[in-house]
Amino acid sequence: MSLGSGPVQRPLTTGFPKITLLRIALTVLLCETGVVAMILVCPIAALPRGEVYRLGTDPPIAVFHTDDGEVYAVDDTCTYQDASLADGRLEGGQMECPLHASRFDLRTGRVDGPPAKLPLRTHRVIVEDGTVYVVPSPEPPGPRPGVRAGTAGSAGVEAR
Question: Which of 14, 44, 71, 77 is the most exposed place for a label (fewest CB within 10 A)?
């Protein structure tokens, strides 16, 4: 039986007991049927503190394991310009964009330093039995970088 393609970037089967593999397969199946939207990221041991894992979802999601042991997930693209936040600098609960140094609070997605003005979309993280999962936000992603939010009922306007 094929479970189809899921949003997981790479299969992680090494080091998982058979019961965990069954749970992972079930998670993917439930995700595809729309009952549960939970993405397997990796074992927590494969994501050291201070590191980031980029999921190849659409849009991409960056999963950060902070130095204090917290795990957060946000949309990976900076809201100011098209840059991967996974390539930026992680400091405490903040992420700095590698392109223009915009800073974002990983807990809330709030902008903590310009030039970005729009917050990041955050996602729920579950760490269960040593495995990290992301539950994607039901909120729609923000506008593409470089697009200012339009007024209600109008399309965004390209920033120049």
Answer: 14
